[in-house]
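Hi support team,

I've been running sequence recovery on a batch of backbones for a student project. Most finish fine, but this one hangs at about 90% for roughly twenty minutes before it completes. I'm not sure whether the input is malformed or the queue is just slow. I've pasted the structure tokens below so you can try to reproduce it. Let me know if you need the job ID as well.

Thanks,
M.K.
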């Protein structure tokens, strides 16, 4: 059931659990996520970066694929197709192609420009019933070639961006994309509290969900985070299971080289990560 992310996040915010944004990179991952959320009756946000959109053949291909799979698997739970870290141009292209939720990441612009562009994206998306996520304070790590060290958001900037009418809001609180270094000091709950005070009832988003200890994720959810993004952890699990399959020589037995067989262990490993995350975030049975 393809919907915007607005209602599922408002419900999560009110009831105190988190909705997972699971990034999809191909057909296998999309199938895996949809099968698990239907099985566990959980809402989900399918995150698609601009790089992943391009890899899969463009925004229109992604929408067509998700719509067709949604129908094929008789998915009854709410599913949003969400542009992850969208550029200004990408936001409008994804909107036109039929994405049901858009993140415009203007965190690399001077603040006044981020604010102005966010307002434009909100107006265009809301006119079509599409939800919008904005960001203040770049999230650390690497995302589509952009490397940030993990800025901490300024609460006053958060207040102004939240006032544009965005449906969800990502603020840097020391979180990073990708693997966390050994010396990572942890999430800044003091910043999260300050951001929460000025953004009111706007559901907050935690990027870089891979590698944050479960207790910190749960604490963030209890403090108003309603959406947690997961990507790298699925990639690592997928790669590890695929490596084991090949190192065990299973691709050389019978038709083990068939892509359907070759990718099956990785897909199953990714599904297991999704199950664990849905349980951790508390969204099972909430659809």
């Amino acid at each position: 059931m393809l919907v915007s992310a607005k209602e599922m996040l408002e419900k999560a915010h009110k009831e105190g659990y988190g909705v997972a944004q699971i990034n999809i990179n191909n057909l296998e991952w999309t199938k895996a996520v949809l099968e698990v959320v239907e099985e566990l009756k959980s809402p989900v946000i399918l995150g698609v970066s601009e790089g992943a959109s391009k890899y899969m053949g463009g925004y229109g291909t992604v929408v067509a694929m998700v719509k067709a799979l949604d129908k094929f698997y008789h998915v009854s739970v709410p599913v949003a197709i969400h542009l992850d870290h969208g550029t200004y141009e990408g936001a409008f292209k994804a909107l036109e192609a039929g994405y049901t939720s858009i993140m415009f990441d203007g965190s690399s612009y001077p603040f006044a420009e981020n604010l102005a562009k966010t307002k434009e994206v909100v107006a265009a998306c809301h006119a079509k019933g599409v939800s919008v996520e904005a960001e203040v304070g770049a999230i650390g790590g690497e995302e589509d070639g952009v490397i940030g060290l993990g800025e901490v958001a300024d609460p006053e900037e958060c207040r102004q961006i939240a006032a544009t009418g965005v449906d969800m809001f990502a603020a840097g609180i020391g979180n990073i994309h990708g693997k966390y270094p050994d010396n990572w000091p942890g999430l800044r709950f003091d910043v999260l509290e300050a951001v929460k005070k000025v953004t009111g009832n706007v559901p907050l988003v935690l990027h870089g969900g891979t590698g944050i200890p479960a207790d910190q994720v749960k604490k963030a959810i209890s403090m108003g985070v309603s959406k947690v993004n997961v990507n790298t952890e699925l990639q690592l699990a997928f790669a590890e299971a695929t490596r084991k399959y090949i190192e065990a020589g299973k691709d050389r037995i019978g038709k083990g080289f068939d892509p359907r067989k070759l990718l099956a262990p990785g897909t199953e490993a990714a599904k297991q990560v999704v199950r664990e995350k849905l349980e951790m975030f508390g969204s099972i049975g909430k659809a």
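--
Follow-up from support: It reproduced on our side and the slowdown came from queue contention, not your input. The CA atoms of residues 43 and 78 lie 5 Å apart. No action needed from you.
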